[in-house]
Amino acid sequence: MKKLSISKKRVKNITFTTVKKGKADLKKDGGTVRGRHIVRVTMMVGNDYKTIAGLDLNKMQASYYMDHYDSVREKTGLDFSTLDFGCAWKSRSLLEGLEQSFNSENDYSTHLETYNPHPSGVRGVLIHKETGNLYIMGVVVEEEIIQHDPRGNARKKKGSDRGIIVKGIQEELGLLSGKWKMYQLPKDTTINGLGVEDKIEETKGVRLYSILNKDNEVVKTSKGRYYFTRKVARQARKEVALKQEKVRIAESWFTSSEWKTAK
Question: Is residue 125 domain-shared with residue 252, that is, in the same domain?
Answer without folding.
Answer: no
